[in-house]
Structure formats: C-alpha cells, structure tokens
Records
---
Amino acid sequence: MAENLDSQAWYEDALRHTGRALLGLYFIMPGVMKVTGWQGSVDYMTLHGVPLVVPLLALTVVLQIGGGLMLATGFRARIAAFVLAGLTLLINVFMHDFWNDYESADKAHELQNFVKNLGIFAGLIYVAGTRPAT
C-alpha cells in the first residue's frame, strides 16, 4: 500500500515538473527570439500601437526569460506563474488583437493565438494557485 502511494507521488511530481518545464520553455524561447530579432519585435509592437516600445520590450524579455527559467526550475514557480499570467493577458490584448485591422494581418491566426494564450493563461493560474508538494 505504501509503495503504491510512493509511486503515485513520484508520478504526480514528474507530471508537475514536466508541465512547469514546458510552460517555462514557452516563455524562454520567445524571450530569446525577441533579443535575436529585436528590430522585428520593435516593428511588430509599433504596428500594434504599443506605447513605450523599447522599455516594454526589454521588460518583456526579462520577464519571459527570467520568469520562464523560474517556472521551469520550480524556483518561486507560483510567483513566476502569476507574473507570466499577467504578461500573457497583456500580450493578448495588445499583440493578438484580432478585432483590429492591420495591413497584412491574418485575423484567423491572431484569433488562434489569442485563444491559445488563454489556454496558457489557464495553465499559469493553475500553477499559481497550486500549493507545492510537501
């Protein structure tokens, strides 16, 4: 009986760590891509009417890479998840605003990204609201 509980706890921990690592990777990769494609990110944000583009882009990079690493490693994962959830909502409103018309924009693609980000948001608030295993 105790052996079953130990294997179940191991299984749950493995799933929890894997899920956090994948959520973290979801933010780390775009953060790095924003650094390597800085001007493209500036242009995209400008197209969408984001104010204070350069400081907000720099902050986004720090939050995505730093928060993603925190989430992936489990270091203050609940706080990182909460912050990244807020960032995800802001990105959705400003960058995946499918309700606006932009030159060469694909509304269906933006709607898909918007809904996908709501799923990511849901996972993040789940992590933020879940007590660490004891």
---
Amino acid sequence: MEKPIFNKKVKVQKYPGKGGWTYVVIACDAKPNSPWVKVKGKVNGAEIEQYKIASMKNGLFMLPLKAELRKKQNIKEGDTVDICLYLDESHLIVPEEILECLEDFPEALAFFEKMTESNKKYYIDWVAEAKNIDTKVNRINKMIDRLLEGKRMYDI
C-alpha cells in the first residue's frame, strides 16, 4: 500500500489582502523537480486529485485550498483540517467532450498537446467551471479559437 507523504491536522491560513490565497503549510519528504509537486489525497475526508503543493523552503510546502473545496467542506481561515496526501503520478485527464472538439481542429489539438500540463489544466478547469451547457459550448469554442492563434489560457 502506498505511504502518504503527509497525514496530519493543520491550521488553515489566508494570505492578507484582496484575492489572497487560503492555504495550509505542510512539512513532507516530497522531492520537487519543479517549484510544484502534484498530489492527491483527502482534505477533511473530501477527495482531491491533481492538486499541486508549492515548495517553500526547508521541506515546507504550501497547499492552496480551492474555493470549491472550502465551500463544500465549510473551511475558513483559522480552522484545523485533516490532510492526507500522496504523490500523484497520474497524467492530466482531458474530458472527452474537449478532446472530440479538438480533434476537429488538428492545429489547435497540436498546440494543446505541446503545452505544459498546467496550461492544459487552466483551459480544462475553465471549461469545467461553466454552470450550463451553453456556457460550456461557448468556452470550448473560445478555447479552440485561442489555441488556433497559438495562445495559452492567460496569454493576452
């Protein structure tokens, strides 16, 4: 059975100022190949996957707690949460509805495949956050247009 890289209760912190991240600081043995390490696990019993912890220093990492997770688990600054994390070696999962649309535009698909996993995930998450089908279709179309122009999600 896989051994967790972190399994403890920690206090939730919030970076001061407007738009400040809500996060926890953890100490673990992850060996980062980049400033970010992909993890999966549980936060207060809620499954998380394809999350990333940011390397700080001295074996410390920051795990940002996304708004969706905080709302679902009613997590606020100052709360203590139970965190259990494992290294996540899985590849990014591209939803079938996005892949099918990209296959109709080989140039967009080729650019998408050349992007980093993080850049792909920005697009995937943006489409997934759509609340209704019309918005989702509109976002997939905008994504394809941007990819055809050779633009990542946050390129101007």
---
Amino acid sequence: MTVLGLAQLAAQSAVDTVPCREFDADLWFAEEQASTDRAQALCRQCPLQAACLSEALTRQEPCGVWGGELFERGQIVAAHKPKGRPRKDAEEVAARATARLAQRLAEVQAALEEERPELAEQLSDAVLEIVGAA
C-alpha cells in the first residue's frame, strides 16, 4: 500500500478525522523535537496508525513521523539528533534513548505480530541488535 493508498483508505473509511489530513503536513516533517512530539501524539490517536506504520516500515520511509514513530534514513529513531557540540553526558543520554527505542520497537513488534508477521520478525532482529550494541 502506498501513501496514496493510505489516503484513499482514510477517505473511504468511516473515519471523520485523520490527523495527517486535518493538520498542516509540515508538522510530520518538522526538525523541532516539540513538533515531532506533537505529530507522534496525534498519530497515536489515529485509527490508521498500525497500517501507516506497517507501510512506512515496508517502504523504509526516509524521514518524518509515520504511524506515530519518527523515521530517519529509513529507520525508526527515538528522537532528532541535536545540532552542535555533543553534551557532556552524551553517552548516558544515548544509553537511555537506546533503551527507550528498544522498548518502543518491542511494543511495535507486538502490535504487528498478527497483521504483518514478517515485519515483526525484522523488528525482533532490530531490537536484538540495539540491545546488543547498548
């Protein structure tokens, strides 16, 4: 299913409001963490969240918020990387972010197991890689 297919599904369903059609599209591709957080919160209320996330994983979306998750370079990431000099506690912050990402990927995997078992398996492998690298 393509992005167009998701839009057509939203139009055909009994869904009156789909956040990505109701709000400015730039919100889902913003650089600011606050905007990304807002887009993710809106996505989590969307009835098409699982389908959107599944298709974004299949397409390896290069960027943006899809199905409530932030994508960069085709992968789900915990947050935007800040610009500028690294923090003094960068390693600690990175470890916490990695743990949060691994937890979220496990949650997404569980949600996808019924609908898309092949993607759930890929996520399982990703979680093992993340946990092993941390």
---
Amino acid sequence: MKKNRPGIPYHEWEIEQIRSDRELAIECLQVALESLDNPEERGGSLLMLRALAEAYGGLGAVAAKAGVSRKSLYRSLSPKGNPTLKALIAVLNALGLSLSVVPKQQSTKKRATRKPAKATRARAAA
C-alpha cells in the first residue's frame, strides 16, 4: 500500500495559479476590489490582494515600491486590515495594473427581468 504524499499547501498552489495565468489574476483582483466595501467579504478580499502581491514580486518588493514597511503592508493586507489607497495602488503597480473608476453595473436581477426589445422578440418568434 502506497503512502499518500502530502501535496503542496493550498496557499502555494493559489500563488502558482495566479502567477501562471494573468487573466485569472486580473479576474481575482477585480472581484477582490469589488468586494472590499462588503464587511462580510472584506477579509477574503484583502487576503486575495495579499496573494496577488506575493505572486507578482512579493510583499517586500511591493512595500519597497510603495515606500511603506513590509510589516505595515502585511498588516494592511490581513483579514482585519484597512489598507490605504497608497497600499492598494502599490499592489496594483506590482501587478502592472492601475486603478480606474467605472460606473456600477445594474444588478443581475434587473437585467434578467428586463423585457427584450420588440426587434428581439420578433426575431425569436421567426
């Protein structure tokens, strides 16, 4: 009988996935930033930002770019952290991205219940 070998820890696997798939990293970042204003999701969002920083240069490099201590950045990107705009921008810079503002999208419930346009209904009937 073979002994099961322990796999790599989830955190290390997550970092590898983020590092190897740029589109995944961008999607994770978008979700994390959108969730920061929800108190129930904020801790997970900050941990995702931390994982992204670790995947692309490490927290030490990000802290150096931002001009903050590594300890301060670790604290900011902890589940109970409260990062400054400077810390968020530093993480984005380390990823080669920038912060931008876009209008909020309508909720999916509103979009799902909206009636199709007359032309669309006519095409569907044909």
